[in-house]
Give the backbone structure.
Amino acid sequence: MEHYAGGCRSGVTAPVTAASRLEPAIKAPTPASWAYAETFVPEDDVLARARARADELGCPAIAPGAGAVLGVVAAALKARAVVEIGTGAGVSGVFLLRGMPADGVLTTIDVEVENQRAAREAFAEAGIRSNRTRMIPGRPLEVLPRLTDAAYDLVLLEAGTLDAEEYLEQAVRLLRSGGMLSVDNALYRDRVADPAQRDAATTAVRELGKSVRDHKQLLPALLPTGGGLLLAVKR
């Protein structure tokens, strides 16, 4: 059997030659390609204003490319129940809620009440009904144990915190089978891939990634979008 451009077929007389093959598909993107991908899905004024409020508050906001991926994931899962650890100013919440079905509810946790006030403003501007969000102020490690086992389709957490690995088992407990764990900022300022970077924050994010990768209940993939988006399906 000979190899052809469309796969292995019989009865065809045009075998692939070296000259007809495409260039290798595995090639690192250039900075221009990365930037193009990050802004491929344009953001509207609602997200622009939410980002501005995040800057004013000094709280991190998910990058445009990673936010677009989150919206696609929420839509693909038909995620009706989502937990977000770290409300921020509502940027990631807008992406999630826009991807979720119209009856989907986002449970979002943040220790800063001011952040959640800004997020409410973003959600209202996006036309999202107030009954689609459940905002819980408080420390995540105090709130998460009160949430129901295996009741959520998607859990999002921010990797750039020293407590992030402590959230992992809680997130796995909360997810239903087939649910998705999403970890934003998983490459942490482009430092995780560099073994010479051994500060506490970078080491914590690196160890979180390894724990997700090696977890027996999770099937992971790391996407180099935004600050790094680590996705894992619960088996």
